[in-house]
Fold these 2 entries.
Entry 1:
Amino acid sequence: MKTENQKAWFFVLPVLLLVAFNALVPIMTVVNYSVQETFGNNVFFWQGLDWFEQILRSDRFQAALGRQFLFTFLILIIEIPLGIIIALSMPKKGMWVPVCLVLMALPMLIPWNVVGAMWNIFTLPKIGLLGYFMNDVLGIAYDMTQNPFAAWVTIIVMDVWHWTSLVVLLSYAGLVSIPDAYYQAAKIDGASPWKVFRYIQLPKMKTVLTIAILLRFMDSFNIYTEPFVLTGGGPGNSTTLLSIDLVKIALGQFDLGPAAAMSLIYFAITLLVSWLFYTLMTKDDAQ
Amino acid sequence: MAKITLSNLRHSYLPNPSGPEDYALKEIDLDWQDGGAYALLGPSGCGKSTLLNIISGLLTPSEGRILFDDRDVTDLPPDQRNIAQVFQFPVIYDTMTVRDNLAFPLRNRGVHEGRIAERVAEIAQMLEVEEMLDIRASHLSPDNKQKISMGRGLVRDDVNVVMFDEPLTVIDPHLKWKLRSKLKELHQRVRATMIYVTHDQTEALTFADQVVVMQDGEIVQIGTPVELFERPQHTFVGHFIGSPGMNVLPAEESDGAVRFQGRQVALEGAVTGQGGTTQIGVRPEFVSLADAGLPARVHKVSDVGRHAVVEAMVGDTAVKAIVEGELPEQGAEIHLAFRPDHTRLYRDGWLSTEART
C-alpha cells in the first residue's frame, strides 16, 4: 500500500515562496499593467484587452517579430550544423581533448555586454580591426552602422561566435557516450561514413541536440544585450529585435500598458514554440 | 566460409614493445577449421578480445599473418573480410525497424532488394523474430536486441566466421540459457565457423566443440570440453575449468618418486623432464575419503546439492574432495585417496607426466 506523507509539502514550501517572488508576482504585475492605462500618479483605468489588440495589429510589432524570427532562424540554421561538424571533428581522446574543450568554452564565459562591446569595436569602420581590414585592405564596403545588411551579418556572426560552442559541447557529450562497439559493428556491416552519422551518431545525439536547439531558440529569441550594445537596433530599425523594441516602448516611451501586453505576447510565443518543438522531438520516445 | 589460420601472431598495444610482458598476445599459431564451433576461454585481460579483434580486422597485429582459406587478409579492413561480430552490448541501429536492421549489411553491399527480402525473411524465421520485423529496434528487450545483432551477421550468406564477444553479459540469467541453445542450434543450421569469446566456462563448454584456453596472451590448451576436464595441460586450465577447480598441491621430487607432505603419491605415468617447480594436480572429483591414505582434518564441508565439497587440511595445504553420500563432521580426522590415473605432475605449470596407455 502506498503511504501518503503530507510532510513533503513543507519541504516544497520554501521553493514555492521563492518562485512566487521571482516569477509569479512579477508576472502578475505585468498582467495587471497589460489591462490598464495609467497617466502617472498611480491612477489606473481599466482597458480590457485593448492593448493586446493594438500590439498585435501594429506594423511595428509585426516587423519586430518578423526580424526576431528571421534572426533566430538564421542563427539556428548556422549554429546547429556548424556545432555538430565541429564536435565531429574534435579528438575523442588524448591530450588535445581538454585543450579543445577549454577553447570551446571560452566565448561562453565572456559577459554578454562585453561581447557586444568587443564586436562593436572590432567591426567599426576605420578604427575596428575587421572594419579597417574590410574597407581599407580588401576594399569591400562594410559599415554596420550605416548598412542594414552589414549590421545583420555582424549580429549573426557575433551570435555564432558566442554560442556555437554550446552546441559543440552538447553534441560532443553525446558523441563520446557512443560505445566503440557501434563504430566497430558499422565497420563490419560496411556502413559508409554518412550512414554512420545518419544511423549511429545522429540518433545518439538526438536528446542533447533537442536541448541545444531549445536553449539556442529561447536565448536567441529573447536576445537583448549583444545587439543592443553592438547596433542599438539600427541602422534605422533594421536590427530592432523584439526585446529591443519592448525596452523602447517600456522605458523609452514609458507606455507601460502596451509594453506589458507585448511582454505577455512575447512570453506566450516563446513558450508555445518551445513546447511545440519539445513535444514533437520527444513524441517518438514516449510511444 | 573458410578455414582461418593464424600464423606467428603477436600483438602489442605499445609502439615499441621490448619484452614479452609488453605483448597482449605473445605467440599465437592456430587453425580454426571451417564450420567449427570454437570457444575462446580465459580470464579478463588474457588477450581473447584482442585476438578476436585481430581476426575481425578491427586491429592490425604487430607481427604475424591471418589467412582465410590460404588468402592473406592481414591488411584487409573488416568489411572486406566477410566476418560478423556480435558484441558484449547489443549493437542495433535505434532509429531503424528490425527489418531494416537486418537488411543493413546487405544494402551497404548493394544486394538487390528482392534478395534482401528473401534473406531477411529466412534469418527472421531462424531467429524467431518474424513478428517483430516492423517495430523500431530501440523498443526491443536486450535479448532480442542481441538476437538482431546476431542476425545482422548471419544475414550475409558469404560470411566466413561469426564471432561472439561475451554476447550474454547483459542478458537476464533465465534468458541466457535460451539464447545459448539458440546459438548452438544456429551453428548446426548454418554451419559457419563460430568463435565464442567468454570468461564463463559453462558458456564455453556448452557451446563449443573445441575450447581454446588462454592466459596472459598465450594459448595454454586447445581441446574438447572433455579433454580439458580430463587431462588439463596446464595447472591454469585445471584450476580455471571445473567447479571447484583442480587441486594444485606443492610436491617434492626425489629418486623418481613424487611426494606430497612427505608421502609418496602414485601418478598416471612416468615423470618427464626435470627441475623447476613441481606441483601435483588432481581434480576434487578424483579425491575420495578412504580408510587409509593421506591423513587430513576436515576444515569445511559445503553441500552444493547433488554432492558436497569437503575441504580438508593435509598439513598446511587445503585439498578439496567431492563426496557423495555420508559426510564427515567438521574437524574430523579422515584419510584421502587420489585416483592414480587422474593424478599428475606439473612442472612450472605445464603437464609433466606421460599419459597412461
Entry 2:
Amino acid sequence: MKAAVIVFPGSNCDRDMARAFEQAGLQVDMVWHKDTALPSGVDIIGVPGGFSFGDYLRCGAIAANAPIIQEVKAHADRGGYVLGVCNGFQVLTETGLLPGALLRNAGLKYICRTVGLTVATEDSVYTKGYGKGTEIGLPIAHHDGNYFADDATLDALESEDRVAFRYTANPNGAARDIAGILSANRRVLGMMPHPERASEAAHGNDDGARLFAHLTTELASA
Amino acid sequence: MKVRVHVMLKQGVLDPQGEAVRHALGALGFEGVGSVRQGKVIELDLADGTSDETIGQMCEKLLANTVIESYRIEHL
C-alpha cells in the first residue's frame, strides 16, 4: 500500500506525516507541489501541516491552486483517501474538497499545546480504531483553526455523522467544537490536531498512532 | 488599468482581529467605537480592457474565499 505526501514551500510536518505512514506499514513517496502526476498506485494522499506559501493571502489559498492539487482532486473524485492535517485541512477547505473555512483563532493567539478530543464518529477508516466517544489527546499548533461554516452546512455535517473529532475544551472558537470533518464519502478527513506528532513513544504521546495503524489495516482489507 | 479589490469578512462571521482593534481604541480613550471590521485591500495593475467578469473570476478563484468573505471591485 502506498501513501503520497504533498510538499509545498513552507510545509513543516511533511516528514512527520511520512514517518507516521511508514511506521504504520505504508510505502511513502514525497510529491512536490509543482508535480503534475501522482506516483502510480497511491492509496492515500497526505496533505501536511506547516505554513505553505507563508500563509500569504489566506492559509492554504495559494497551495490550493498548486499544480498537483488537480491530481489530488481527481484522486478524491475517484474515491481515493486524503488526510489533511492543520495547514493540510486549510488547503482542503480552500480546494472545496471539504466544506467551511478555518478562521483566525477567537483568542487571536497562536496556540501550541496538547488538547483533549472526543472521537465523534467511528464510521471512517481514520476513526474506527478508536471507537466513538473515546477521548484522546493530540497536539495542536495553529493560528487559524477556528472552524467556520454556515448553520445549514454545520447541520448537514452533524446529521450525516461527518464530524470526526470534537474538542473537549474548545481552544480556538471552532463552531460546535469541531476539530475535524469528513467528506460526504467519508474518505477525505481534514483535522487541525496533529496525529502524526503524537504517534510513537518517543513523542511522549502515541494517541495518534491508532489513526495510522487502523487506516493501514482498512486499506489492506479493501 | 488599475483596480482595487476590497475583501471583507461577511456579516455574521466573527472578526476577532476587528474586535481586538475595537478594544484597543477603547483603551486609548476613544469613545463611541461601536464595531470594527478588518479586511484586505488588494491593488492590481491589469492589461487595459480586462473585463469585470475576468476580475470577478480572479476574486472568486483566489483573492476572496467566498465561504467567509465578500469582495468589492473598485476601478481607479
